[in-house]
């Protein structure tokens, strides 16, 4: 059983694991995740990863990087993210993982806000970044080849568990993404939590965990990567979810564990059934938080392995993760399991008063003992006020509504924060509103989530137009130019007024009710087919 006291950093843990599991498979990218899909993909054993990382460490050190500084990475879902994480972590340098699907504004904001010393990019993104960041003199854009052959001074590999390992940006209730500071302890605590689960979710040295989730999110970067590293297993990293070849890849890669999001489950159930659907002899479980509860039992019966529901936030990390991996799992009821023995929780109303047993309320969490923030994130970078607001009263306010069952199981109900959760991506309604308000065709607007059978949520926008004959297509095109594709409105409805509270703020509750009614009555413009990922 792993113990966090055995390690001083993510790199230190990897160094120990690479000795124990030297010849085991560690990192794998199938052909579809490589620049040339005609190849056999990319593969590293623990020993090969160690050799590659140890070549990179002095090259980074030669650039004068110091403990506590940051380097942004733009490799999308390439294995390079993990290699650079380990090399920089050895020096006490934090990574800022980014994704090319972000808008120019997003990439510039996160690079500038994070105070990165360096941006290391895949070749296909370098020109874009050099143009985008040309006036940011403190951040140089380089490629991997620029790191090679450097002569390093004496290396200083002294680091500790409190040192920041990554700054991961996540959408919140404000328009700009928040930078979550994640320490070495945060990373390792998640991997240890996963390894100590046992039961249905028992990890073994020969496990191959297949994930299509990008490593600019904590699920892939912190959870699957660290869990596999500590047990001697292999991370099979896909570039994205490919529905039509999904099960073929699962078979070819000999995956034993799958990580997914709810949207994937919904899509897989729409595929035609065939005689090879059952994977009970190969796959142990699917870690699939946020799945439609109506799909859980159907999925398990059709494909032959458990679909495990769970709950966490980037902010909470292993400090309050819950997972429904023990019976009774309450399949089909949005059960997220019981709180861990190391976690304290409360379920409260809008005044932070405890609700009656069985009633729904906001979930508040903290670690037991005299360190309530243990294994949580270290805070929002450059936003102490938001960090302390989240921790008001000594409890982390999750913004998620749950209820507790009679056996102590927690059941997810809804999100109280004004965040739209589409295909696993958090979208701040105010960010979409800000983009809409820049359009010359929009006088005012309000945005909310509406249910979507495939993607969980979809973006619904009420617009007060600036003309008597508004054109939704022009408004949508404006959004495409200012937002990442998945943030653009899936529906637009034109209105003369918006519902207001007594303090003259938009009534979010009324907006959600209006959107539900408009959608039910087909009284809106459906733009979902226009929401398309940019071609590479």
Attribute tags:
536 residues, alpha/beta, Rossmann fold, Luciferase, domain 3, GMP Synthetase, Chain A, domain 3, 3 domains, seven-stranded mixed beta sheet, seven-stranded antiparallel beta sheet, 28% helix, globular
Task: Explain what you see.
28% of the residues lie in helices and 24% in strands. By secondary structure, the chain is α/β, with parallel strands linked by helices. The chain has three domains: 4-259, 3-Layer(aba) Sandwich (Rossmann fold), CATH 3.40.50; 333-415, Luciferase, domain 3; 420-530, 2-Layer Sandwich (GMP Synthetase, Chain A, domain 3), CATH 3.30.300.30. The strands form six sheets. The chain has a seven-stranded mixed sheet. The chain has a seven-stranded antiparallel sheet with strand order 14-15-16-20-19-18-17, with no helix packed on it.
What is the topology, as strand order, of the major beta sheet?
Answer: 2-1-10-9-11-12-13
Q: What is the count of helical runs?
A: 14
Residue-averaged pLDDT? 91
* Percentage of β-strand residues: 15-25%
Low-confidence stretches: none
Helical residue percent band: 25-40%
Number of domains: 3
